[in-house]
Amino acid sequence: MYIHGAAMFTYITNDSKPCRICGQPHSVTITEELFNATMVGLSQWLSGSLLIQDALPFLSIDDREILISGIGPKCWDKMVEEMDAAEAWDRYVEECDALLDEGK
């Protein structure tokens, strides 16, 4: 994580950490107005005293996820879709097994 400062704009970027799945770089940008709140929130989250959604509520869900897991939004969405498909398949197999058991 890098902290950059300029006269008119201060931001934090996480662009040194690419998505763990696809390798695409992602960044989290914080405006000067939220800089102090972000530093406090990061400290509280990293120390374990607050959940990230409570410590950094002004960040988007995608921004918080890249900080938590290192997984970008596109890869996260794909993982969720695949998990949903796997769960649907498991339910289908269970239902088929139940129907077969009823027929015995």
Please describe the structure with a list of short key phrases separated by commas or semicolons.
single chain; 104 residues; 4 helices; two-stranded antiparallel sheet; mainly alpha; disordered N terminus; 2 strands
Layout: helices, strands, pairs:
Layout: E1 2-5, E2 10-13, H1 35-47, H2 52-55, H3 61-69, H4 73-103
**Outline, from the CA principal axes?**
elongated
Which class do the helix and strand fractions yield?
A: mainly alpha
Termini distance? Answer: 61 Å
| Poorly predicted runs | 1-11
| Major sheet attributes | 2 strands, antiparallel
Note the beta-strand portion.
5-15%
Radius of gyration: 20 Å
Helical stretch count?
A: 4
Q: SSE string, helix = H, strand = E?
A: EEHHHH
Name the helicity range. Answer: 40-55%
How many domains in all?
1
Lateral strand order in the biggest sheet: 1-2
Give average pLDDT, whole number: 80
Count of extended strands: 2
